[in-house]
Amino acid sequence: MTLPTNIQKSLFTLSIPLMLISCGESEPQAPELSFAETFQTQLIEAQPGDVIAIPSGVHEFTRSLSLTVPGVTLRGEGMDESILSFKNQAQGAEGLLVSADNFTIEDLAIEDPIGDALKINQSTNVIIRRVRTEWTRGAHTENGAYGIYPVQTTNLLIDGSIAIGASDAGIYVGQSNQIVVRNSRAEYNVAGIEIENSTFADVYDNVVTNNTGGILVFDLPNLPVQGGQSTRIFNNEIFGNNQENFAPEGNIVGNVPAGSGLLVLANDNIEVFGNRFEGNKSLNIMIYSFVLNGRVVSDENYDPYPEQIYVHDNNFVNGGEATESPYLVPWFEENGSSIPNVVWGGLIKDGGSSDKLVCLGEAGNQSFLNLNGANNVADASTDATPHRCSLPRLPPVSLDLAGDD
Q1: What number is the average pLDDT over the span 192-218?
Q2: Is residue 94 in a domain?
Q3: Domain limits at 374?
Q4: Is 234 part of a structural domain of the chain?
Q5: CA–CA separation, 332 and 191 (whole Å)
Q6: Is the four-CA dihedral 229, 235, 236, 238 of positive or negative sign?
Q7: Which of 46, 196, 281, 343 has the most neighbouring CB atoms within 10 Å?
Q8: Buried b vs exposed e over 124-158: b needs ≥16 C-beta within 10 Å?
Q9: Vertex 172: Cα angle to 171 and 176 (nearest 5)
Q10: Which of 341, 265, 268 is nearest to 309 (CA)?
C-alpha cells in the first residue's frame, strides 16, 4: 500500500532528529586541567595526613605556591623527574612557601624562581629529602637568594638534597634549633651550606664544592634569635670552593672571599672533625669575631666573639695559595707562603681568657695562624702550642621525626 505524499513527508522530517540521536552526538567536553593548574588548589584544600603526588614532567608556574596545612607530604617521582619550574614567574617572592608543622617534601626539583626556591617558615618537624633547587643559568647575581631555606624551624632534617646557583646560600638554616643536614650537595652558590643564628646542628657527609665559601657557621646581630652554638661539622668533602662572589651588593655574604672552605663567625661550642679540605684557594678554616678589623656592633644583646671551638682530625690538601681574604692578604704578601690550615682572628672579649677558646687537639698537627686582632702583620703568630688542647665532644643531634628513615 502506498502512503499519501503528505504522510511520507512527515515521516521523513521526523526521521532526521532520530538519526542524529542514533549517531551519538554529545555536548563538547571542557579540556582537562594540567597538574600545574590544579596544584595550588590541592595545597589550599589539603587535609592533615594528605600525600600530594607530583607526577613526572616539567610543571610551569607563573606565581608562588604556598602551604599552611599541617601534616602534609609533597612527593614527586625523583629530583630529575618531577620539576616545578618558575622560569616564567611573574608574581610572588618564592617558589614554594611553607608555614606548617609535620611537613615532608621529597623527590622533586624547584627551578628558577624569582626569589627563594623552598622557604620553610616557623615550622616544627620538617623533612626535606631528595629535593633539588637550582637556577639553571648557573652562578648569576640576579638568581634568588636561597635554595633550601628553613627559618625559625625546630626538628629539621635535610637529607640527600642538592642546591645549585643561589646568590646567597644554597642550603641555609637560620634561627632554628635541632637540625641535621646530611648526604647533600651544594655547588655554584655564594655560600654552599650556611647555619646562621642556630643551635644544635649536625652537618655531615655532604659534598660542598665550587661555591664562593663552602660552609658558613655564622651568628649575626640585629636578628630576633641570637646565640648560635653547638654545631658539629664532620665527615664532609669541602674542596675547590673558588667561585667568584656573585652576591648582590650589600649582602653580608658579599664579604666572603672566593676560595673559603669553612668560616666560623661569632659562634660558640663548635666541633669540626673528620672533614677533607682541598684546594680552597683563600683559606681552609677561619674562626673570627664579628668585630675583627674594627667593625662596629649596635646590638647590645649580641656577643660577637667565638668561644670553645674544637678543630681536630681533619685532612688538609693544599689551600690558601692565592688568598683573597682582606684579613690574610697582608700576612700572605709578607711571608710568601700558603695560609695555614686553621686561622684564628685572635680577638678576646674584655675580661676574657684565651684558654681553650680554640683547640686543635693534643697532637696539634694542623698548621695554625693567630692574627692577634689583624692590626699588624708582625703581631701574627703561627705557634700552635697554646692550642694543643681538647674540649668535650659535642653530643649528636637526635631528631624525633616520623618518616626519618
Answers
A1: 98
A2: yes
A3: 43-387
A4: yes
A5: 24
A6: positive
A7: 343
A8: bbbbbbbbbbbbeeebeeebbbbbbbbbbbbbbbb
A9: 135
A10: 268
304 contacts: CB under 8 Å, gap ≥ 6 = 221, 266, 289, 290, 291, 297
Q: Residues of 24-40 as b/e, b for ≥16 C-beta within 10 angstroms?
A: eeeeeeeeeeeebeebe
Query: Would you give the distance in Å from CA 252 to the centre of its chain?
Result: 16
Residue with cell 652537618: 203
pLDDT in tens, 144-185: 999 999 999 999 999 999 999 999 999 999 999 999 999 999
Residue 243 lies in a domain: yes
Q: What is the largest CA-CA distance in the chain?
A: 129
Asked if residue 3 is part of any domain, the answer here is no
Its pTM stands at: 0.91
Q: Assign 140 to helix, strand or coil.
A: coil
Cβ partners under 8 Å of residue 231, min gap 6: 195, 198, 199, 200, 201, 202, 203, 217, 267, 269, 270, 271
The Cβ-side half-sphere exposure at 215, using a 13 Å CA radius, reads 33
CA angle 20, 26, 27 (to 5 degrees): 130
Q: How far is CA 265 from CA 58, 90, 134, 253, 397, in A?
A: 40, 37, 27, 12, 21
For the record, the C-alpha cell of 256 comes out as 666572603
The string of pLDDT tens digits covering residues 75-87 is 999 999 999 999 9
Alpha helices in 263-351 (DSSP H): 329-335
Which helix (H) or strand (E) is 44 found in, with range? helix 35-45
Residue type, 28: P
pLDDT tens for residues 235-271?
A: 999 999 999 999 999 899 999 999 999 999 999 999 9
pLDDT in the model for residue 347: 94
- Report how many domains make up the chain: 1
If you average pLDDT over every residue of the chain, what do you get? 91
Strand partners, 25: none
